[in-house]
Amino acid sequence: MTPSGARRLTEPVLGVLVFLVVLGIWELWAGAADSFLVPTASEVAERVWHVWPTSDFLSQVGQSLKRYAVGFALATAIGIGLGLVVGTSHAARRTLEPILELLRAVPAIAIVPAAIIVLGPGDASRITVITFGLCFPILVNTAEGVQAISPEVRDTASMLHVGRVERMVHIYLPAALPSIMAGLRIAVSLGLVLVVVSEFVGEQNGIGYYLVVQQSEFDYPALYAGILFLGLLGYGLNRLFLVVERRVLAWHYGATGG
Amino acid sequence: MAEPVLRVAALEKRYSEAGPAAIADVTFDVLEHELLAIVGPSGGGKTTLLRLLCGLMRPTSGSIHLDGRLVSSPPREAAVVFQDYSRSLFPWLNVYRNVMFPLRTVGAPRSEKSARVATVLAEVGLEDAGRKYPWQLSGGMQQRVAIARALVSRPEILLLDEPFASVDALTRTELQDLVLRLYDHEEHGVTIIHVTHDIDEAVYLADRVLVLSGRPGRIVGSVGVPLPRPRHQTATRSSPQFLSLRNELHGVIASLQE
Q1: What CATH class is the domain B1-61+156-258?
Q2: Which of B39, B146, B144 is nearest to B82 (CA)?
Q3: Superfamily for A55-256?
Q4: pLDDT at residue A107 above 50?
Q5: What is the ipTM of this complex?
Q6: Cα(first)–Cα(last) distance of chain B, in Å?
Q7: Which of A150, A158, A251 faces B133 most closely, judged by CB atoms?
């Protein structure tokens, strides 16, 4: 067997082993601590079994996912749209840069209280927070991608009489797509952070709300079951994104040998 | 008798008002169905001249007329093949779609346009490559795709900007013969301006060779090439007439550098 072949077999096995060892340490340590503040791994696993399949928990998840999806979609539209404008027009860049730089520096979770005052508790304020936070990485990556397009591509577009709108949609958008996807990849993970944190305050449902409730009701195993679910959800969303990215950027990976 | 297709009069380009001229006092005519080569040292204003001819840039003074009309933006009758094929082809489109791109606004049935694409792909020897992506082809084949894309809209004038500078010597001779074949092809009757720093290539391909001096670029010589067509890599290049023409041009360029 080749060394790399051997590594391909042993590395996943090692990965599972390390995972089990960490679980074991948790179990022993929490068992030794014998405190209701620190549930053991088996207690949490038992709660996972009873919490995850319940309609209450799943509807909380549904609420969060709805906000996440709408916020992500809005941020994608705004981020790519503004990114194309900022990336192509010097005038737009100079005009918008000060305000965009300032807003970008604001941590998105800092606007949660203000969003609740203006939009009230509920979907609108959470979605606003998510959209606000996610549109900047998408915007910046789109603008950078567009600015990095080679002069040859621009010249070719001019020689082929590609008009303004067509140039945006059929030249700049695909040419900047590798960079845009990098922005979206950041947004996939950041979105989950924002949806959970935004639901911590003044909310009646969602996973963030669920975590806060379990904390206040001292149901710590359920709290950890929720956290574990978020970990799996984040992992799943990332994997899903990678599949989409591989598909959309197949030409790019081919061209760059990636 | 052939008419001038392109008239270039007293062309001058300065990139900044007080800066030096990149080209100055450039005047020449190009006849219908002429293959004109423009040679000159690197950095000698060849690219500036070509970008002006393409309408990608406006001259500081002087004028370019194509078919009697002033060129102020890329004319529909002109097509260009850039040196850097890897950047001028759209990597997100396959070969067929790249070549189809210039026809997107042509009001003809899809089947007709499709047949047109198939014809030019066959002319450049890529009849089977339609479904491939540019990165799946060699450099020489990519440049063939670029040539096919330039020809598909049946341009009156084809501008070649050092088109073979980035390929290996063997591929270069193949592409030179491809250009000769397309030029001799009756249906096209296309006028070609070929910018190169390779004197032998210029003599081998052209009906007439203009010599552009460096800084600022001026036309310092015009040498007719009465070599018989069709031309052949070995027979033409070893003829005494070829050798005396290339020596004459080498003499003109050498005198520039003194």
Answers
A1: alpha beta
A2: B146
A3: MetI-like (1.10.3720.10)
A4: yes
A5: 0.87
A6: 40
A7: A251
